[in-house]
Design a protein that fits this description.
alpha+beta; endopeptidase fold (from Nostoc punctiforme)
Length: 147
């Protein structure tokens, strides 16, 4: 899935525009979702899953068509975090484990001490880029299938 990752990296630095203007690139990603989510009209609405859906579509992998991060727990094959490979999709819980909210990104690495996972994704500090997250927030790792 390295190609999946490389397609995502093309968007490195893509960011939200503060105020009443919005990133046309992010809004076009929203429009590319199969369900059309017309209620999303700004780039402040969480767009991590929208970003991953767009990358999956562009690179020929299965996608969820949903703006919900946890929707990614239902596609592809489950992979243990210790076996994660560059390009696998990682789903994190947000707030607490039972909350329906989450975050999704593309696996890059695990820290040397094993306490953090590095993900590349959209809506990470309001931009597309890489960030480290605590491993204890990982809810699932998925290997997507080509379509």
């Amino acid at each position: 899935m390295e190609d999946f990752y490389l397609v995502a990296k093309k968007y490195n630095g893509l960011k939200e525009i503060k105020g009443s203007k919005h990133s046309k690139v992010i809004l076009n990603m929203v429009k590319s979702l199969s369900r059309g989510f017309r209620y999303i009209k700004d780039d402040e609405t969480p767009w991590c899953s929208t970003f991953i859906n767009h990358i999956a579509k562009e690179s020929g992998y299965e996608r969820t068509g949903s703006p919900a991060a946890k929707s990614w727990l239902k596609v592809g094959e489950s992979v243990p975090l210790k076996d994660a490979q560059l390009g696998n999709v990682v789903v994190l819980w947000r707030k607490n484990k039972t909350c329906g909210l989450g975050h999704v990104g593309i696996f890059e690495a695990i820290s040397e001490n094993g306490k953090y996972v590095k993900l590349y994704g959209g809506n990470q500090n309001n931009r597309a880029g890489s960030d480290w997250f605590p491993v204890n927030r990982v809810e699932g790792v998925r290997a997507l299938k080509r379509v």
